[in-house]
Amino acid sequence: MSAERTNTCLVIGAGMSGLLAANKLQEAGWAVTILDKGRGVGGRMATRRFDGASFDHGAQFFTARSDEFKGMVADWQEAGAAREWSRGFADAEGNPNEDGHPRYRGAEGMTSVPKHLARGLDVRTGEKVVRVDEDGGTWRLETESGTQATAGALIVTAPVPQALEIVGSGEYELPGPALEQLEGVSYDPCLALMALLDGPSGVPEPGGVQIKGEPLDWIGDNGLKGISRAPAVTIHAGPQWSREHYEDDEAEITAALLGFAGEFVGSNVVSTQLARWRYSWVSEPHPEPFLLAQSDPALVFCGDSFAQPKVEGASLSGLAAAGALLGEG
């Protein structure tokens, strides 16, 4: 590797994987730039605010099973970025269902954690990568705004179908074995409805109904959760219903989900917004924490579809991807 590209990395995606990979590389002395097409950081660690209310509309909470991730969560709590929310939620009938395992949330919404991780990093939001090329051992990226960036290593954390589209946007061709492995990864969508209410919801303490079924997967009260001053519920459709109705009219989806939620809504609906998460649940993951598609120049794929799903899986995947570039393991 030539001197001008030694220890330089571009990261596509400012979700948990990308932010933690960038932090680890930067701490090791690398120069890292993160590019993300969104307006802010976090990916599905998403909080939206409208009409005086706040809604977590992507990931609703996270758990910590491994010692490594438990240590990270403790650090986030100490920094004021995360808090324990509960030890379980109500079931589909509204009955308490605690199991003793802590569920955590962002202090002011799920975006609090990625915002904390982004401090001190070179994160460029609103930069959609539209072309990727490999030129003489250097990665060259171009964004929709015309921004160009180069580095000696590239980490791609976008959902795999989007990642393949991005990496294949220029003249670079992904090696066949890597392409074959990545094409085996699949996802289910999620339709997420946010509804502002004129009074309390019917969601019981501590603010979540975990259904894990069809047509609904989850109903959350963001006020009881502690992130919204106004009564505000988030309703997640199940993966099958979301797939069948993904392209339906927003008004039809809204009416259906409010109907399914029934008494858990509890009050009159003042306003709503709908989020369509095309790549929400990982239905077929890659078996390893990351995929090193090639070593020179290094190209690494990682995210919540590698080894473990959800927030913990995404976090550990990003750290493992950075570790691969650092020669760990």
From TrEMBL:
Q: Which Pfam families match?
A: Amino_oxidase, NAD_binding_8
Matching entries from InterPro entries are given as: Amino_oxidase, FAD/NAD-bd_sf
Amine oxidase domain: which residues? Answer: 98-326
| MF annotations from Gene Ontology | oxidoreductase activity
**PANTHER family named among the record's database cross-references:** FAD/NAD(P)-BINDING OXIDOREDUCTASE FAMILY PROTEIN, FAD_NAD(P)-BINDING OXIDOREDUCTASE FAMILY PROTEIN
Name of the protein in its database record? NAD(P)-binding protein
Instruction: Please report the organism this UniProt entry assigns to the protein.
Output: Rubrobacter marinus
